[in-house]
C-alpha cells in the first residue's frame, strides 16, 4: 500500500461544481485582485472566527509581517517567539528590523512555554507571537496574563490552526491580531499563495488595509509606505467554497487522530499528541515522537508511507539566525523534540485502513512486529 502525506482530491470533488461556476464568473468579470468575492470571503472568515475584521493578504508570512507593521514594530524592538516553529514566524520580525527573541516550548504541547516568558521580557519587548503548532492553541490564559501585565501585544501565528478553539473562542481571535496562511497544504488551503489578518481592533484593520495596498487611502492618496500584498479573487472563490466544509473536515481529522492514538498507544517509545483541556486540536499536522527517528523515517518511506519532519532544526540553530549568537543547548526541549518528532500522513478523507497501515509500518520500523 502507498499512503501519501496528503491527498486533497476528495476535497476538490466536494467543491468542484461550485468552483466551475463561480470561477467562470470571475474570469468574465476579470476583477482578479480584491474583487467582490474577496471582500465576501473576508467577511465570511471574520464571522467564522468570531471577530469584527479580516483583511486578505498574499500569504501567511505577509499576514504576520503586516500585523507587526500595524503595531509599528521596527528597528530596536524585540518580539518573542518559540524557537520550535516554521521559519516564517521569525522572518516576519526580521523584515521589520526588530529582533526575534526565542523561548523554549512545553514538552507536552510543543507550544511556547509561558513560564519562560518573563525571563526574556525587556523594555524593548513589543509583542509575543504564540504559534498554535500543529493545530492546538497555545496556553493563551497564561500568555495573556503576562502580556497584559507587561503591556505587550499578542500576534497569534494561527497558520496551522484554522478553526481550532480555546475556551470556546477560535484561534486567531485570542490575542490582538490573528494571522493565517492559506498555503495549499494548510487545513484551509487556496490554489496558490494566500493569507489573512483578523482583529477586533478598528485601527489595526484600517492600518493593515492600507499596508497591503501601497499604503493607500482612497485611490491616489498614500498615507504610509505600504506594500503590494492582496488577496486574489480566484483564491477567495476557492477559500469560500472550502470554508463551508472546514468544521466538518476538521472533525474528520479529529476522528482519524483518535484512531491513530488508539493504534499507537501500545508501541513502546512512541509519544502521541496530548490535547490539553479547554482546547480543540484540529490536527493540521499529526506529529508523534519516536526513538531513532531518522531510521524509522527511512524504513517507513521504504514501506510506501510518506512522512515528513516539522521541524528538524529549531530557528535558533538555523544558519539564517546565526547572528543571534545562539548555540546548541540554549533551548534543550526544542532541540530534543526536533530530533524525535515525525509527522504522519493526515488529511480529512484518509481511510482507517490507511491509518492502520501507517501504524503497522511504524510498529515494524520501531522494531516490534
Ligand atoms: C505556513 C506557515 C507560515 C507561513 O505561511 P505562508 O502562507 O507559507 O507564508 C507561518 N507560520 C506557520 C506556523 C506556518 O505553518
Task: Please describe the topology of this protein.
Layout: H1 9-29, H2 36-49, E1 53-57, H3 60-70, E2 78-82, H4 88-96, E3 99-103, E4 125-128, H5 140-149, E5 153-157, E6 165-166, E7 169-170, E8 177-181, E9 195-199, H6 202-211, H7 233-243, H8 246-264, E10 286-289, H9 293-302, H10 332-340, E11 341-344, H11 352-365
Parallel strand pairs: 2-3, 2-4, 4-5, 5-8
Antiparallel strand pairs: 1-9, 6-7, 8-9, 10-11
Written description of the protein model:
By secondary structure, the chain is an alpha/beta fold. The protein folds into 2 domains: 9-243, 3-Layer(aba) Sandwich (Aspartate Aminotransferase, domain 2), CATH 3.40.640; 246-365, Aspartate Aminotransferase, domain 1 (Alpha-Beta Complex). 37% of the residues lie in helices and 12% in strands. The protein is built from 11 helices and 11 strands. The strands form 3 sheets. It has a 7-stranded mixed sheet, sandwiched between helices. Helix 3 (60-70) crosses helix 6 (202-211) and helix 9 (293-302) packs across helix 11. The protein is globular, with a radius of gyration of 21 Å. The two termini are 18 Å apart. It binds pyridoxal-5'-phosphate (PLP). Pyridoxal-5'-phosphate is lined by residues 59-61, 85-86, 88-89, 131, 157, 159-160, 181, 183, 193, 195.
Amino acid at each position: 500500500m502507498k499512503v501519501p502525506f496528503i491527498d486533497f482530491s476528495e476535497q476538490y470533488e466536494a467543491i468542484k461544481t461550485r468552483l466551475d461556476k463561480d470561477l467562470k464568473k470571475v474570469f468574465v468579470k476579470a476583477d482578479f485582485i480584491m474583487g467582490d468575492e474577496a471582500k465576501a470571503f473576508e467577511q465570511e472568515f471574520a464571522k467564522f472566527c468570531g471577530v469584527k475584521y479580516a483583511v486578505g493578504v498574499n500569504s501567511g508570512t505577509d499576514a504576520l509581517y503586516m500585523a507587526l507593521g500595524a503595531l509599528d514594530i521596527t528597528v530596536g524592538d524585540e518580539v518573542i517567539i518559540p524557537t520550535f516553529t516554521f521559519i516564517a514566524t521569525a522572518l516576519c520580525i526580521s523584515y521589520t528590523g526588530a529582533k526575534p527573541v526565542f523561548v523554549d516550548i512545553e514538552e507536552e504541547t510543543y507550544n511556547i512555554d509561558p513560564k519562560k516568558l518573563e525571563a526574556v521580557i525587556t523594555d524593548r519587548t513589543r509583542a509575543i507571537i504564540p504559534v498554535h503548532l500543529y493545530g492546538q492553541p497555545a496556553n493563551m490564559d497564561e500568555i495573556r496574563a503576562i502580556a497584559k501585565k507587561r503591556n505587550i501585544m499578542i500576534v497569534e501565528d494561527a497558520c496551522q490552526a484554522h478553526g481550532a478553539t480555546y475556551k470556546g473562542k477560535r484561534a486567531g481571535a485570542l490575542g490582538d491580531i490573528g494571522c493565517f496562511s492559506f498555503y495549499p497544504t494548510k487545513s484551509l488551503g487556496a490554489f496558490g499563495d494566500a493569507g489573512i489578518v483578523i482583529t477586533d481592533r478598528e485601527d489595526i484593520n484600517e492600518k493593515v488595509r492600507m499596508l497591503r495596498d501601497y499604503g493607500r487611502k482612497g485611490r491616489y492618496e498614500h498615507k504610509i509606505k505600504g506594500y503590494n500584498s492582496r488577496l486574489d479573487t480566484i483564491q477567495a472563490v476557492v477559500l469560500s467554497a472550502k470554508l463551508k466544509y472546514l468544521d466538518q473536515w476538521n472533525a474528520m481529522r479529529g476522528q482519524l487522530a483518535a484512531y491513530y492514538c488508539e493504534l499507537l498507544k501500545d508501541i513502546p517509545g512512541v509519544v502521541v499528541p496530548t490535547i490539553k483541556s479547554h482546547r480543540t486540536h484540529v490536527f493540521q499536522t499529526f506529529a508523534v515522537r519516536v526513538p531513532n527517528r531518522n531510521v524509522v523515517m527511512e524504513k517507513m518511506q521504504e514501506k510506501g508511507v510518506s512522512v515528513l519532519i516539522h521541524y528538524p532544526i529549531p530557528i535558533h540553530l538555523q544558519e539564517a539566525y546565526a547572528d543571534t549568537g545562539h548555540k546548541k543547548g540554549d533551548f534543550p526541549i526544542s532541540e530534543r523534540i526536533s530530533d524525535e518528532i515525525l509527522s504522519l500522513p493526515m488529511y480529512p478523507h484518509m481511510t482507517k485502513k490507511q491509518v492502520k497501515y501507517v501504524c503497522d509500518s511504524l510498529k515494524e520500523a520501531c522494531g516490534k512486529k
